[in-house]
């Protein structure tokens, strides 16, 4: 889950706890949002400023119509999910470090860095959360 920190940051996500992930207007990113299920975990990535993964969020409400989409004929086409903060990385994982590591060559964030919502494999999830010092709560 990618957000520009000057528009919506990890600090704001934590302060609000559960927040709708609205405003996605890419068809591929929308499809990724629609595929998310209650309880799915995601990485919170600061784009533009920092370019680093800073924490973990969880789907608190599965896809529903995005209230920011307006009321035209295409409005119902767009969806959002509610995300809940689960924990910060102790060490942010930079995009540069992922690009420099061949294990991440096929990671969507590396290949399609402009895509705002992208899938992460179990292997990449494990590697990235290890790099960030994040442990799954018991």
Description:
The longest helix is centred in the C-terminal third of the chain and has 11 residues, at 122-132. Helices cover 26% and strands 30% of the residues. It has a single domain (2-132), classed as ph1033 like domains (ph1033 like fold). The model has no long low-confidence stretch (mean pLDDT 93). The chain is of the alpha+beta class and 138 residues long. It is globular, with a radius of gyration of 15 Å. It has five helices and five strands; from the N terminus they run βαβαβββααα.
Name the helix and strand elements from N-terminus to C-terminus, one letter apiece.
Answer: EHEHEEEHHH
- Percentage of residues in strands: 25-35%
Largest beta sheet: strand ordering:
1-3-4-5-2
Oligomeric nature of the chains:
single chain
CATH topology, which one? ph1033 like fold
- First-residue to last-residue Cα separation: 23 Å
Rounded radius of gyration (Å) = 15 Å
Number of domains: 1
User: Which of globular, elongated, flat, extended, rod-shaped describes the shape?
Assistant: globular
In the predicted model, the low-confidence regions spanning at least 5 consecutive residues are none
Q: What would the average pLDDT be, to the nearest integer?
A: 93
Can you give the helix content as a percent range? 25-40%
Name of the CATH first level: Alpha Beta
Question: Which secondary-structure class do the elements indicate?
Answer: alpha+beta
CATH architecture: Roll
- How many helices does DSSP assign? 5
**What is the tally of beta strands?**
5
Major sheet size, sense and barrel closure: 5 strands, mixed
CATH superfamily: ph1033 like domains
